[in-house]
From TrEMBL:
GO cellular component, as recorded: membrane
CDD domains xref list: S49_SppA_67K_type, S49_Sppa_N_C
Source organism (scientific name): Pseudoalteromonas citrea
InterPro entries noted in UniProt: ClpP/crotonase-like_dom_sf, Pept_S49_pIV, Pept_S49_SppA, Peptidase_S49, S49_SppA_67K_type_N, S49_SppA_C
GO BP, one annotated term: signal peptide processing
Residues passing through the membrane, by range: 21-40
Name of the molecule in the record: Protease IV
Gene symbol of the encoding locus: sppA
């Protein structure tokens, strides 16, 4: 035995030495790459006169970029195994289009959207408005692609002309909500669920207690999904100047039209008026060369990409005028959880700290709380709302600006603002609460594992391995009912509504902002800029600057981001880290199911409310 032990110990030391050697070599290669990169001069960005701005957007549109560890992000990109979808900051896209509108060197905006992964209708509409302003300046917008998703086509519809590859197609299916349901799986695993909820339509816990969607949830979801679909159809029809009846909503109509074109998706799009012409990439390139001329290489047209133009217009140092009065914008995006969190998740303490920073800044005269959240921890939501109240008490108005979603806890943190502004397509409401936890006594018993012992009081009779005392379960239900009463009271008092009126439109039911406005849950319809103007008006500001108060990176994080963001370092890591074909295959075939499972597991893992009470909308996730 001693000999075997020494053998394994020797093997371990050998493996450990090899591991450290490889890591150290990798580190030395990266440092060398940084030194070489730093010593070389970056190519200066030059924009030719009469150029095309190629809006080649990549990723999902978001209000705030999710924090990523720089090394992990670089390694994930290199191995193509990044389980976090690439994100694209909405404000960056709008800023690029707006700047290009007034740039005499840019004559054409080319919408190259094949890598745009989507975004909620409110974000697409904001970009579409910027595209319309670009067109109104007398410049041309072209859209070209092989395939258009529903989100991609929404932006493409704003172009002067849309072209499609002859072998391409357009995928417009409307909106849907098809959550996964786990009741039977949990029963087979003998997991005991303890659910406490209030609200007829509070369907957040349905995936854990049902195998299908309840009729009440279907009724509520169909109402707001139909409203979103109606808005989408209206916007496209106005842009393309055809009737909303041109959208196929039944398989019979779709099949009949496809039979007429013998299954040719591109011809279907052309005949339906979705596109103006069918062109190959080469034909488009020749057309653009004829319009703006060849670039220096003579191989393509004069152009600049989205990323390069963004880099060109972004100052190296973000200068803030110390003299002017300010409207501060604070973004609250993601699940609401207790404690301090990085960007992309709303932490009760961390988001409240950002609001406090605005409150204590004498130059900040008004605050816009930009919300994109389906909620989460009730306690964390209240911590944030308390800071909103403190800002108001300091004499500074607060305007809540709702993005894609501001429901459940997202509505809680908005409720006490001086005014609530929302996009017509914002998903809001879902005023309801629930408690959820699971115990494993039956599963453990099947394995021959039992829990037994003594306690000084009966109040300690709750455990993952023993279950829950029925009387304590009643106590939890009372706590949830009390939380619901607090929620509707907060809304009623903040919005100047009768409590009974709030209860009538609450019950966990989800609405679009156009519907919520009718009930008094929203004051006005508009985007973030409208909310900023409203905040300035409330603060009686005629001249002001807009600043964004966000979490700052530490000096170490800044250095690492700069190092691992260097192109040479990324190329080095990519060369050293082979691609995983297995990961690609799994990603391709599991697709949406994997995403849905991850979302549910992520939701469970982030449930850290100290009282175990949540105000969260899980049906607010939709399929585009």
């Amino acid at each position: 035995m001693n000999l075997i032990g020494k053998l394994f110990k020797g093997l371990w030391h050998g493996l450990n030495f090899s591991r450290r050697l490889i890591v150290n070599l990798l580190f030395l290669v990266i440092i060398a790459a940084v030194i070489i990169s730093a010593s070389s001069t970056n190519d200066e960005i030059i924009i030719d006169n009469n150029s095309v701005l190629r809006l080649n957007l990549q990723g999902s549109l978001v209000e705030e970029l999710t924090y990523e560890d720089p090394f992990d992000a670089a390694l994930s990109d290199a191995t193509n195994s990044n389980d976090q979808p690439k994100e694209l900051l909405l404000d960056d896209v709008i800023r690029v289009i707006t700047q290009a509108k007034d740039d005499d060197r840019i004559q054409i905006l080319l919408l190259d959207l094949k890598h745009l992964r989507g975004g909620h209708l409110d974000k697409l509409r904001s970009i579409a408005d910027a595209i319309e302003a670009f067109k109104d300046s007398g410049k041309t917008v072209l859209a070209h692609g092989a395939f258009y998703s529903q989100a991609q086509y929404y932006l493409a519809s704003k172009a002067n002309t849309i072209s499609l590859h002859p072998y391409g197609g357009i995928d417009i299916r409307g909106y849907a909500s098809y959550p996964l349901y786990f009741k039977e799986a949990l029963e087979k695993l003998k997991v005991t669920q303890h659910i406490f909820r209030v609200g007829t339509f509070k369907s957040a816990v349905e995936p854990f207690i049902r195998n299908d969607m309840s009729e009440s949830a279907k009724e509520a979801n169909k109402l707001w999904l139909d409203e979103l679909w109606s808005q989408y159809k209206h916007d496209i029809s106005a842009a393309r100047q055809f009737d909303t009846a041109n959208f196929d909503e039944t398989t019979d109509n779709y099949l009949a039209k496809m039979e007429q074109v013998k299954g040719d998706y591109a011809q279907y799009a052309l005949k339906n008026g979705w596109v103006d012409a069918l062109k190959t990439d080469q034909e488009l390139q020749q057309e653009l060369i004829a319009l703006v001329g060849e670039n220096n290489s003579g191989k393509s047209y004069k152009q600049i990409s989205f990323a390069k133009y963004l880099s060109f217009i972004t100052p190296p140092v973000d200068f803030v005028n110390p003299v002017t009065e300010k409207v501060a914008v604070i973004v609250a995006r993601g699940k609401i959880v207790d404690g301090k969190q990085k960007a992309g998740t709303i932490g009760g303490e961390s988001t409240a700290a950002l609001l406090k920073k605005a409150r204590l800044n004498d130059k900040v005269k008004a605050v816009v709380l930009r919300i994109d959240s389906g909620g989460g921890s009730m306690f964390a939501s209240e911590i944030i709302r308390n800071e909103v109240l403190a800002i108001k008490e300091a004499g500074k108005p607060v305007v809540a600006s709702m993005g894609s979603v501001a429901a459940s806890g997202g509505y809680w943190i908005a409720a006490s603002a001086n005014e609530i502004w929302a996009s017509p397509s914002t998903i809001t409401g879902s005023i309801g609460v629930f408690g959820l936890f699971m115990t494993f006594e039956n599963a453990l018993n099947d394995l021959g594992v039992y829990s037994d012992g003594v306690a000084t009081t009966e109040l300690n009779d709750i455990s993952l391995s023993r279950g829950v005392n029925p009387q304590l379960a009643q106590v939890f239900q009372l706590g949830v009912e009390n939380a619901y009463d607090k929620f509707i009271s907060v809304v009623a008092n903040s919005r100047g509504l009768e409590k009974s009126a709030v209860d009538k439109v609450a019950q966990g039911r989800v609405w679009t902002a156009t519907q919520a406005k009718e009930f008094g849950l929203v004051d006005s319809l508009g985007d973030k800029q409208d909310a900023i103007s409203a905040a300035a008006k409330l603060a009686n500001l005629d001249f002001y600057d807009v600043i964004t108060i966000e979490q700052t990176l530490s000096e170490k994080e800044k250095l690492l981001r700069e190092i691992f963001g260097t192109a040479m370092v990324q190329d080095t890591i990519s060369a050293l880290a082979p691609q995983s074909s297995l990961l690609k295959l799994l990603e391709k075939n599991l697709g949406q199911v994997s995403t849905d499972l991850e979302r549910h597991l992520s939701t469970l893992s982030q449930m850290n409310d100290p009282n175990g009470i949540y105000t969260q909308c899980m049906t607010c996730q939709i399929t585009y």
